């Protein structure tokens, strides 16, 4: 049976842990060559080793997606290693540890969230797309359930994720005719290291969160990776400009 990304080369940002790490391992199992990117070098290199244990080809590159030159260097590194770029999973993002009304927010933090969650995705696509113009390709951006509905006290995150989805749709419209599909996945609550730490410190919060999800549980990171894999592969070859929510139906309950 053919693997879904057999021989196809690509980049995953934010791949040191959580959804990005799960995607790197899964995509490699499906035949992909992977550039693992993050700002956490130790854990990023751990992801590379996990991919290689699965028999995959992977390399690590330190990249702060809020730094345009750094993103350009990342894409150049991928071309140097693989000679092509077939797909990209722009997964890196930040959730601010600030729950505040707009007049109480810190401007520097607000700007940082936009720099990573919107400008970071913009930079990634700006430098990835030129390498897909000749042969085509597929891009998935990691948006959020907060790309379609917001949560009180999270203006920076909600603004960034609505903006990221808008950017995804604009790019899909512009490049669909050039055989480049651009979609997004939208995680609901997902069991990543950040949520695991929160669950350990505040189990009552996680219990309340699960009560808002129809199937009564939070997602596993690999379930988001599965959705991204589908969109990047030929199985999703007539899907463009869409946001696939992986939230257990939570968005129906808000």
Short description:
The protein has 254 residues and is an alpha/beta fold. The protein is 44% helix and 17% strand.
Separation of the first and last Cα atoms:
41 Å
Can you tell me the CATH class?
Alpha Beta
Please tell me the total number of domains: 1
Apparent shape: globular
What class, by secondary structure content?
Answer: alpha/beta
Beta-strand percentage? 15-25%
Spatial order of the strands in the main sheet?
Answer: 3-2-1-4-5-6-9
Helix content: 40-55%
Contiguous helical run count: 8
What Rg do the Cα atoms give? 17 Å
Question: What value does the average pLDDT take?
Answer: 95
Q: How many strand units?
A: 9
- Named CATH topology: Rossmann fold
The CATH architecture comes to 3-Layer(aba) Sandwich
* Main sheet makeup: 7 strands, parallel
Q: Superfamily at the CATH H level? A: NAD(P)-binding Rossmann-like Domain
Q: Which sequence of SSEs, written as H and E, runs from N to C?
A: EHEHEHEHEHEEHHEHE
What are the segments in which pLDDT stays under 50 over at least 5 consecutive residues? none
Structural features, described:
The radius of gyration is 17 Å and the shape is globular. α3 (68-82) runs parallel beside α4 and α6 (193-201) crosses α7. The chain has one domain (9-190, 218-249): Rossmann fold (3-Layer(aba) Sandwich), CATH 3.40.50. The longest helix is centred in the middle third of the chain and has 22 residues, at 107-128. β4 (87-90), α4 and β5 (137-142) form a beta-alpha-beta unit. It has helices at 18-29, 41-53, 68-82, 107-128, 155-175, 193-201, 203-210, 221-232; strands at 9-12, 33-38, 57-62, 87-90, 137-142, 180-187, 190-191, 219-220, 243-246. By secondary structure, it is an alpha/beta fold. The strands form two sheets. The protein has a seven-stranded parallel beta sheet, with helices on both faces. It has a two-stranded parallel ribbon with strand order 7-8.
């Amino acid at each position: 049976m053919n693997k879904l990304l057999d021989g196809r080369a690509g980049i995953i940002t934010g791949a040191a842990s959580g959804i990005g790490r799960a995607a790197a391992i899964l995509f490699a199992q499906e035949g992909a060559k992977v550039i693992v990117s993050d700002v956490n070098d130790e854990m990023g290199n751990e992801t590379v080793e996990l991919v290689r244990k699965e028999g995959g080809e992977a390399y690590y590159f330190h990249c702060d997606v809020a730094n345009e030159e750094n993103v350009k260097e990342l894409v150049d590194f991928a071309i140097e290693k693989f000679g092509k770029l077939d797909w990209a999973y722009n997964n890196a993002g930040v959730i601010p540890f600030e729950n505040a009304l707009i007049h109480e927010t810190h401007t520097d933090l607000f700007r940082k969230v936009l720099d990573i969650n919107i400008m970071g995705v913009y930079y990634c696509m700006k430098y990835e797309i030129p390498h897909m113009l000749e042969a085509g390709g597929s891009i998935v951006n990691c948006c959020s359930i907060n790309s379609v509905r917001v949560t009180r006290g999270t203006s920076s995150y909600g603004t960034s994720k609505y903006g990221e989805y808008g950017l995804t749709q604009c790019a899909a419209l512009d490049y669909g005719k050039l055989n480049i599909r651009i979609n997004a996945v939208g995680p609901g609550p997902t069991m990543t290291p950040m949520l695991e730490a929160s669950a350990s410190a505040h189990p009552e919060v996680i219990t309340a969160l699960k009560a808002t999800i129809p199937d009564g549980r939070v997602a596993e990171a690999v379930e988001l990776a599965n959705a991204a894999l589908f969109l990047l592969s030929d199985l999703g070859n007539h899907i463009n400009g869409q946001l696939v929510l992986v939230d257990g139906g939570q968005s129906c309950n808000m």
